[in-house]
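Homework help thread (please don't just give me the answer)

Our assignment gives two proteins as sequence + structure token strings and asks us to describe the second one. The first is just a warm-up. Here they are:
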Amino acid sequence: MEKPAITDYTISPAIAKRWSPRTFASTPVATEHLSSLFEAARWSASCFNDQPWVFIVGTKANPETYSQILDCLVPFNVSWAKSAPVLMMAIARTTFNHNNKPNESAEYDLGQAVATLSVQATSLGLYLHQMAGFDAAKVITTFNLPENMKPMAAIALGYMGELDTLPEELRAKELEPRSRNPISSFVFDKPLS
């Protein structure tokens, strides 16, 4: 199933095609494809080129880490994410490497890395669904994260699955048309007040 964006202006096909399904096929994601995703993230922009992102990756071939990530998700997300062949935690390192001072851009930079990763995933025929529904304290404890590591998102990744694997209410949600706010609602050429 594809749900391309209906755009007002031309955008890259990989951006138009990207969306966040909740159904995943059991097909494993090849190691070279995973490496390609992280190579894309590696080349994302960041403040001072600090690259303050960390990804913890679990695959069904690496069931211990996969189960640990799944166990950190809220029950609703577990209900559908458990079918994805890859689960990840995206973590921001909140201090700079060069001076250990707070990096106020770390979360923004991690977001850029995940956005770049998501476009690369789409270009490889993969889909991902980012989630805020997870227990951050549990992630910190489970993965023994230091104080300067902040879990920001859980990510389910894989190939598109079949709609009939989802509960009825989620199936209906998957079929809803995509929508976005108009550009005029967030781009301004004068002060906001």
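The one we have to describe:
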Amino acid sequence: MFITFEGPEGGGKSTIIQRIGDRLRGEGRDVLVTREPGSGTVGAKIREILLHSEAIDSRCELFMFLADRANHVTTVLRPALEAKKVVLCDRYSDSTVVYQAHARGLDPIGVRELNAYATDGLTPTLTVLLDLDPEIGLKRLTTKDRLDDEPIMFHRRVREGFLIEAKRDPNRWRIVDATKTVDQVEFLCYAYIKEILSHEQDPLPFEGLG
């Protein structure tokens, strides 16, 4: 089961994912918690460049995210899913569509096509959007990286982009108000995940490229 968490900065994804992971492990499930960018040795190097370097050209940034994702799918995600693990991922392909197309202004059709190639058709079973006003989210941050430091209008476009993407595929997305308490957010996310896990006989999500 492949579950992704998306949303504007400061939504609490990392905290919620860890708490959900602990709950599922307590039920005896085999859980993998991972993230993008930054999984594995290669991913860690790409993450450092993406989040802590000087300004990066938008197209260069796009291809770096895609390189990280292709490596992540091949070396981490597919092996874990084939081993029947519950995979909880902090950001995935939707973030690239939102940040690089909606927020950066790159061609959305091209971004989607490249994203599909990088993922080799691997799509999440469920995507949870932790939604909140970017002004609120940014105030929660104790440290900031290169993307966090973007102007507020950039972050507003990010939030709008996530909401647009959620409307495009309502069967996959669930929206949770991230301004609620951590316990409330965890409860809602856990309920959505348990609903999906009740159908865990579903096959490995794969939409081949033909």
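TA reply:
I won't write it for you, but here's a hint about the kind of observation we're looking for: The radius of gyration is 16 Å.
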